[in-house]
Input
Amino acid sequence: MAAPLAGIRVLELGRVFAAPWAGQMLGDLGAEVIKVEAIDGDPMRQMGTGVIRDGDGQETSDRSVFAAVNRNKLSITVDLSSEAGCEVVRNLAGVCDVFIENFKVGDLARRGLDYETIRSLNPRLIYLSLTGYGQTGPYSSKPGMDNIVQGLSGYMSMTGEPGQPPQASPVSIMDFSAGMHAAVGILAALYGRDKDGLTGQYIDLSLFESGLALVGYKMIAALMAGEQPPRGSRIRGYVPSGVFETSDGWLQMTVATDVDFRRFCETAGRPDLLSDPRFETRWTRSDHQDDLTPLVQQILRERPTAVWMESLGKAGVMAGAVLSLAEAADDPQARDREAVMTVAHDAGGTIPLVRNPIRLSKSPIETYSSPPLLGADTDTVLADLLGMDRSEIEALRACGAIGPARTPT
Output
């Protein structure tokens, strides 16, 4: 069976995280994704501690962050400060189904690449703008970044430990939330267009509102209760729960019910805790968690993580080791599911990639092509989609509208 989005063509003017993540999701599902980069490339190519190496083991100019969110794409380089370059993008938009961009509000309008202009060329196009705060409102003209939105959305007010400063997530959680919302919105618009014969439409999406959606269940609780949830991971009714130190590492454990607490006490060899009136029910344990948590921590320090994992698992208590990233990639469950794979990179070496978690039974995601070399597909895309001959392409290159010729290794 063909990939779900086979036949859909996406033009991605996406930089850094959120928009490229949406483009990668569509590419994983079978869309043809054309990534439009500046002549010197997406800044994400220089981000990350991992360096992509060629077939001889020599370092290239691309790094790990770009590789993580740009597979299954083609790359063309265009100078959007030139009218000729903008005309190339307009012409490509005319033969695409989806247009993704995450420029600041108004930037593309000045270049004649806004929705109204593009819609006049291709009425069936789905055009998505992903900005920090949306197209309207007092913040609309401001640039947005993941960590800033973590603060503005209320997310950061809950992070860290009680009595300590808020902490930003080390994962760009707002970017990825926005990218996933973008992919869902695009799929919905495509479905509506094809189902009802509608024309295309415009999608206005922001990091800020995606962040509000991400914390929505906490926000609704705070608004209804009239109080801010305490900082940290404590949840009333789930005690003892959290991260605990073992004799050789760390363990995350969640005791959700009175039955779970009984199972934990029996596994730990501490049935005496069951007769303590402070710990009789999940609610009394919540009221006395400052008494119970140190006792549980003392107990868990007595055995190694692996021993606790096995014994608590057999007892039916939810627990898991706190793994490093490398350990998580090599975990037996990850290996069995082939969740992390190694693929050939166009530079000549290999890179690890994390598999798309969507498991489709009839049209599985099986293509994981290398993140593209900068501008590697410029000539092919212009020739195949716009019918340009060699002289026309070289004329664009001579005036600086497109980047240097480059082909995959």
About this structure: The chain has a mean pLDDT of 94.
